[in-house]
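We were asked to recover a plausible sequence for a given structure. The inputs and outputs are reproduced exactly as logged, with field labels preserved.

PROBLEM: sequence recovery
POSITIONS: 404
GIVEN STRUCTURE:
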């Protein structure tokens, strides 16, 4: 039996060449699909849908709101006796901003494929598509469904994966192909955006003592956050993820130099662990309010959720048990395709895996290629990792979906 599954694995491995995977990823990168493109992800979704269909992988497009298209491809299981596996990757990227390389003219040099989205995450997405193609070309019959969802808007509000959660397809397990340098990452922190509005009292700058300066009050709040809350978070340990963090991202206040500012607002990025709750996240900010108020009774502030980065689902932490069959399957397949023991770590960012695990009840692990420069001026993915990922994805599908 072991011999047989090994044979199938090597048969699949030979079915898609490295140059083909590179070619596919280059093509995906060459189609801009960021938030400033009028057609958004549509063009890249249409290309991927056609590519899969031409290979005999049943694929379709499904509208997500206006102008947005998810790709859903499914290799149907023959008996339904195996479990189903969903491979998930986002088709959008961040805009090129001021890249030092040509963002949409992908080039491979010294084993690195450069371009906007090469790493985050058209590389992982291409490797996922290649895994389906290889299984299809090898005519392997899986018992459970193998699904690819190429989704819109992960860099925005995760509209694409929300749509999958709400309308299906459903799967027993999931893998998100964000870049992990071939590390298996069953968990990561949640992401909450907060806004703090500090209120003062307007007055003329020449009679500042008659007002209450909201900017000065906000500064007091910031000092307390940095002195008390940030160190407390840094010392907090999680069984599953990296420690919690708080980043003061944006501040805005006042009208002009000769007026006492009556308003100042601060936007915060708070990464929370599975051991924390959102109530606690909020309470800790209220505690800072109280401690500023003790020193300055005129301090007045309001705390709100900033929901601009989400549609309807809270960006909760992702937690999948390390003893899950999916984690075990990934550990085995990573070892067999890299010759090294798989590293089990926690992803530093937030991903759509959390929505699938929490809201669709599909335990989803993050696993993808290595490289550098996600959202940065020089972005690349390692081409050897693309091949390893494609092999790991297909071998994991064999283990989860089983062959007949
Ligand atoms: Zn990403």
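RECOVERED SEQUENCE:
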């Amino acid at each position: 039996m072991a011999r047989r599954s090994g044979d199938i694995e090597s048969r699949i491995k030979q079915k898609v060449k490295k140059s083909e995977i590179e070619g596919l990823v280059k093509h995906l990168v060459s189609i801009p699909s960021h938030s400033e493109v009028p057609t958004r992800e549509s063009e890249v979704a249409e290309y991927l849908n056609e590519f899969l269909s031409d290979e005999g992988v049943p694929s379709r497009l499904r509208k997500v709101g206006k102008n947005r298209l998810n790709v859903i491809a499914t290799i149907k299981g023959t008996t339904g006796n195996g479990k189903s596996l969903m491979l998930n990757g986002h088709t959008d990227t961040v805009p090129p901003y001021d890249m030092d390389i040509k963002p949409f003219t992908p080039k491979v040099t010294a084993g690195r494929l450069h371009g906007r989205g090469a790493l985050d995450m058209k590389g992982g997405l291409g490797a996922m598509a290649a895994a389906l193609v290889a299984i299809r070309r090898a005519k392997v019959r899986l018992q459970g469904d193998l699904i690819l969802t190429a989704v819109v808007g992960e860099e925005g509000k995760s509209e694409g994966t929300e749509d999958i959660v709400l309308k299906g397809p459903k799967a027993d397990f999931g893998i998100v192909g964000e870049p992990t340098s071939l590390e298996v990452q069953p968990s990561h922190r949640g992401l909450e955006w907060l806004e703090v509005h500090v209120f003062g009292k307007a007055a003329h700058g020449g009679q500042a003592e008659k007002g209450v300066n909201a900017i000065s009050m906000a500064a007091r709040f910031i000092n307390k956050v940095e002195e008390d809350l940030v160190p407390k978070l840094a010392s907090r340990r999680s069984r599953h993820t990296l420690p919690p963090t708080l980043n003061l991202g944006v501040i805005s206040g006042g009208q002009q130099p000769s007026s006492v500012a009556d308003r100042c607002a601060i936007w915060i990025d708070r990464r929370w662990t599975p051991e924390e709750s959102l109530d606690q996240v909020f309470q800790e900010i209220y505690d800072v309010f109280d401690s500023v108020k003790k020193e300055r009774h005129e301090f007045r502030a309001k705390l709100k959720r900033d929901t601009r980065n989400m549609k309807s689902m809270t960006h909760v932490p992702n937690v999948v048990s390390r003893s899950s069959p999916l984690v075990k399957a990934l550990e085995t397949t990573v070892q067999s395709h890299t010759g090294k023991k798989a590293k089990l770590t926690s992803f530093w960012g937030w991903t759509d895996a959390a929505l699938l695990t929490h809201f669709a009840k599909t335990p989803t692990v993050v696993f993808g290629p290595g490289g550098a420069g996600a959202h940065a001026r020089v972005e690349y993915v390692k081409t050897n990792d693309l091949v390893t990922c494609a092999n790991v994805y297909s071998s994991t599908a064999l283990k989860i979906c089983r062959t007949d």
